[in-house]
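Entry 14. Structure prediction run on the chain below.
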Amino acid sequence: MSRDGILVTGGSGLVGAYAARMLLDRGEQPVVFDVAVNERLLGAVGVEVKSIGVVRGDILDLPALISAIREHGIGRILHLAAFLGEEVQRRPYSGARLNLMGTVNVLEAARLEEISRVTFPSSGTVYLGSLGEGGPKKIDETIALNPLSIYAATKAGSEFLGRTYAQRFGFEFVAVRFAALYGPSPAGLKATRELAIQAMVRAALRGEAASIKWPYGPAELLYGKDAAKGIVLACLKDKLKDRIFHIGSGEMATGEQIVAALAQHFPRAKITLVKGERPMPYPEERIPHDQSRARDQLGYEPDYLLEKALPDYAATLKKIEGG
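Output returned:
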């Protein structure tokens, strides 16, 4: 059997669904591996489930993972299955178990099944403890890891596990550190920032008044489509010099700027922000990633800055929610 398939764990989540679509558009053969396949989200981003391989499986079930690799002729893995930030803070044992042991299972499968490359979505949160007064004025891939949350620790730990597994067993492990993700998807595991943006977009679509809690300062937002673009490039690009890449938008945005951008497209919406409690122990002051390495080696450039992302978000959310 050929080994042309690309397994996308967590493949019906926000980034996974967009990644599956982009892989299809590039003539690749994505196989979605997910514990609960969200066909509505896949359909909303243009993926017909019948056109791809789909495996309903738990990332903690190593035999199921290996069976999927063998059955579908998998040669590369995009490992996106994980609990996200605040969910890990609320459920630290379950979050650490899924994020770390899920990664170990993928790496073991790569070792046993001779997978050529594992591509992993890390997070800009892994180095936030290195910011602050007297900290670096430029954030590139050489910044010291210093996680401030359990979630960030699982991402940093997965980076180290992947790097050492790859060195020991001779496959490639490529980590892509995302800026602050947002985009249209079911709300179950979204972080506070994502929930707030989704509430803004939903209110704008309906032309309703809404008062939304916003506990953040400026942040570098990354739309789901651009996140998927970055990780797909990292999965497919041959002969990479480096194995860690920062993927963002380069655009810092406040809650007020999001509201103003939405008002350009949905003038009937009346959205006000109120100060909420910060849910994570991260510094409020941020600076954007340096993305020169991703630009030079991957050919990555963001396509969806805020003004373009928000109407696309609204149109996709409308499809998901049947509006």
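The chain has a mean pLDDT of 93.
Filed with the rest of this week's runs.
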